[in-house]
């Protein structure tokens, strides 16, 4: 049997057949017309009228709280929950320690009157779920349904001000996120709240990001009767980076259109042509973080256009997933200003050993996603470049015995067997460098990482690395004498190829 529809849904569908947007019609149908709240929700009309007069006169509503005598456990996160009851002179909030307990104390479908001022100064009455809460760092009560202040209904309360993570990132972009559904009635979890989304070095980039975050939605709300969902407001704040005790100043506020469309996305497996080369990883750094920052935003979103090239748009809080969401809402490659983007994050080469020491930065994601053909072409281009670098390196280290063309011919003649033999020599250097790298720290470890990258990608070997490799082979007695001799011959051929090819796989006559 088809699911039974509410009266509001039936009215909205009827209006949609007349050309009205369904979501707008559903909101209008679910609104509380004057005088109907008592019939629908059992409100006391005298209380509603008195509360409306208070809002019309003062713009704020008095709040009294009956605090719970229950002692929170030691691990309690500090949030306060409560159930609001309307009265003629304001609201009475009965505190309940836990969100689930507060929701269980209210029958589903319950709504209480919340008068508020509209933009033109008139007073209207909203029907809201009676759960209220306030976070640990902000004592102001707010409605759990939409984030309005209980004392100042009709608008979203500004969030608590964090500390800028770096003096080079003074502009904070924060968003007010409304989860889909209604906490305590349709789900147990997140409440409408502010969150810092990103940090920017430039105010224009921060404003651009704030507009993009609320211009589209990621998906349509499952049930518009509960109101808008997603990012409904974005703000840009400027922090005084030279004085962490100074309060930030609000630069701008951008509100979302309730009828904003879902963000367009490219069909799966497609990508616009012309993706540029990534920026040089060796030149990528991080801002100078303030001392004491435990979790600074480590993921950077870089964007690209033909006119601007690669630029840093923002440092994203929360990791790779929020950076990908940001790229989607910027419509990267899907009609937005930026044709391509990349998420750059910390490089942890030893994560497989549970060693999370960071060594530089690397590309974590590309936007739009690369296709299989794109990845194949990039890998093949990297292979060709690596062989070219190897030929050039062999020629340079041959002492004039080989030209680049002769080295390339030698690689072609020796085939896979010769390239594998050279890899044994390269691996001896890499192993010695890895041992030294793990024993080092700070700038010294980063320098050894750069040498390793140069060895791996361009076959460059500084003189001091040769000494490390010789010492490592002299100390390493884990292999048989024959294998040690084989490795030494491979290292010799890799570092100084000469005319003698006796015993070299792929080149020797035997």
Could you please describe the fold and organization of this structure?
By secondary structure, this protein is α+β, with helices and mostly antiparallel strands. The protein has twelve helices and 15 strands. The strands form three sheets. An eight-stranded antiparallel β-sheet has the order 11-10-8-9-13-12-14-15, with helices on one face. Helix 9 packs antiparallel against helix 10 and helix 9 packs across helix 11. The longest helix is centred in the C-terminal third of the chain and has 36 residues. It is elongated and about 105 Å long.
Q: Brief description of this entry?
A:
By secondary structure, the protein is an alpha+beta fold.
Q: What's the tally of helices?
A: 12
* Mean pLDDT figure: 87
* Outline: elongated
Going across the major beta sheet, what is the strand order?
11-10-8-9-13-12-14-15
**C-alpha-based Rg, rounded:** 32 Å
Order of secondary-structure elements: HHHHEEEHEEEEEEHEEEEHEEHHHHH
Helix proportion:
25-40%
Specify the structural class: alpha+beta
> End-to-end span in angstroms?
82 Å
Oligomer: single chain
How many β-strands, per DSSP?
15
Low-confidence regions = 1-8
| Biggest beta-sheet profile | 8 strands, antiparallel
Roughly what fraction of the amino acids lie in strands?
15-25%
